Amino acid sequence: MRKNYERALKALQDEVLVMASMVEKSIKRSIEALKNRDLELARQIIADDEAINNKRFDIEEQCVELIATQQPMAVDLRIIIAILNMLVDLERIGDHSEGIAKIAIMVGDEPPIKPLIDLPRMAEKSCQMLSEAMDAFINRDVVLAKKICDDDEEVDALYEQVFRELLIIMAENPKTIKRATRLIWVAHNLERSADRITNICERVVFIATGHMEDIGASKY
Amino acid sequence: MTIGNLVTLKTDPANTRAAEDGHCLRLQQVNLYYGDFHAVKDVSLDIGARSITAIIGPSGCGKSSMLRLFNRMNDLIPSARVEGLVEFDGVDIYQSGIDVVELRKRVGMVFQKPNPFPMSIYDNVAFGPRRHGIRNKRILDEIVEKSLIQAAIWDEVKDKLGQSGLSISGGQQQRLCIARVLAVEPEVILMDEPCSALDPIATLKIEDLMRILSTNYTIVIVTHNMQQAARVSDMTAFLMVGEDRAGMLVEYAHTNEIFTNPKNKKTEDYITGRFG
Question: Is ipTM beyond 0.90?
């Protein structure tokens, strides 16, 4: 029954996975650019963000078209409405990565104030959460979605740790304030990204149960 | 007891059940048979007063049969037999002694195909009140005007009340039929696919009209058009045919819930177009 419609609905969800993998790649590369002082890569990330933005508009148009032409109901309707919300979060995570790439360019070849350990950890954890969020999305897995929201606490804890550490460095040596502040911005971008992944998980729960709930609100 | 007594029963403290929980129509463990054929099986549901309830489901699932239980239209089929309790305002309408003509006055019906009588627009609307004994021309004029206004067709026909009811468009004919029902001041309006013979604009006019009427009337509508049920109703009942070919109630809930988050997998499959 309704084969074309089923196909379109599946294609729509596949497109979300494609967009999520673009975003995940952007997070990974942004932290690499910062760590390796790779300005070329940083510029590439900024340029590639446009592709993420375009992907968001493409998927949004597909959603509108499906609603207008197919009158989706029940779980189908919830999937499309959830996707419309998830797109906003994915696109914004892309912007956070772009923000990190811009910071990498600002940092340029200034001498490092400390080895980057926790920031890559935050990025890694965020990528893992995003990848799992997509598994939860495809499998309508409420348990996994809620677990990912719990994982956000790890990112929050890392954020706090980075913040504290950088404060101490700044207090000890005011000359580091500019560089340390930039790293705090990076940490903030990653923390916000993880929060947005929990929003995506809330939409997964909505698809599966029909209920909208705030799961594990972030400290920040 | 005749159905005419219901008017007094409503204010009788001994019979305030309907008023207390706000339901107007009630089916309790109702079974309907046409001869050996089990058309409606074990259906129980309460319909609230002054609301719109949609009955949806695949063809042949007993939607129209269920609708016709409420004004005993199935009585017209000789082999029809009803078991269980069908209540209107707290009174069992299948008990002996019920005045079926009076019942159908209070529980009016609009059919799939507009069916104006082959007489003038005025006479179509005045038909019911005349049958119920109103002869005074001034009163009849008032009823005709009021009913046509309520049915949102007055402005279109006020200058041609003497013309045949069959001379106007299909959408207008259907609103004329609704005016004809309203003229006898019913409490419930049953609608059996009232828009299936109408174009989309006429359909939307009827839907708008239903919304307005629902502030004063209890409306039950059978529709094949799920979007119509979603647009217009407060509550939705989903029926389907069971393994034994009998129509059964699968899910009955707020329309919003049925169309966004149905509880039953069969409802989900039907409204998403994966079955039916």
Answer: no
